[in-house]
């Protein structure tokens, strides 16, 4: 199973996170399938590759709690819902 979760990067006291699609059995810094975003909690900046995120969500990937909150704030789930109703 694939999850969308945060991968810690940066240095001490200056943490930044990559949002990655990764296998559930991999550890936090393990090999990811694809990098789909970036989150900096200090500057409160977010960059998301929305088409890639939608692709993984449509294939059944589960976001973690924190990633789900980030995606809700941006409105990715609204796009996912409109894409699903478009094809059904």
Automatic annotation (TrEMBL):
Belongs to the bacterial ribosomal protein bS16 family. It is found in: Plastid, Chloroplast. The keyword Chloroplast applies. The gene is rps16. It comes from the Eukaryota. PROSITE patterns: RIBOSOMAL_S16 (PS00732). HAMAP family: Ribosomal_bS16 (MF_00385). Keywords: Chloroplast, Plastid, Ribonucleoprotein, Ribosomal protein. One of its GO terms (molecular function) is structural constituent of ribosome. Transmembrane segments: none annotated. This is 30S ribosomal protein S16, chloroplastic. One of its GO terms (biological process) is mitochondrial translation. One of its GO terms (cellular component) is mitochondrion.
């Amino acid at each position: 199973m694939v999850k969308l979760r945060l991968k810690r990067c940066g240095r001490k006291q200056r943490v930044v996170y990559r949002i990655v699609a990764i296998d559930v059995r991999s550890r936090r810094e393990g090999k990811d399938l694809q990098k789909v975003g970036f989150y900096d909690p200090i500057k409160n900046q977010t960059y998301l590759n929305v088409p890639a995120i939608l692709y993984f969500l449509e294939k059944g990937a589960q976001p973690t709690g924190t990633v789900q909150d980030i995606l809700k704030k941006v409105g990715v789930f609204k796009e996912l819902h409109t894409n699903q109703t478009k094809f059904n």
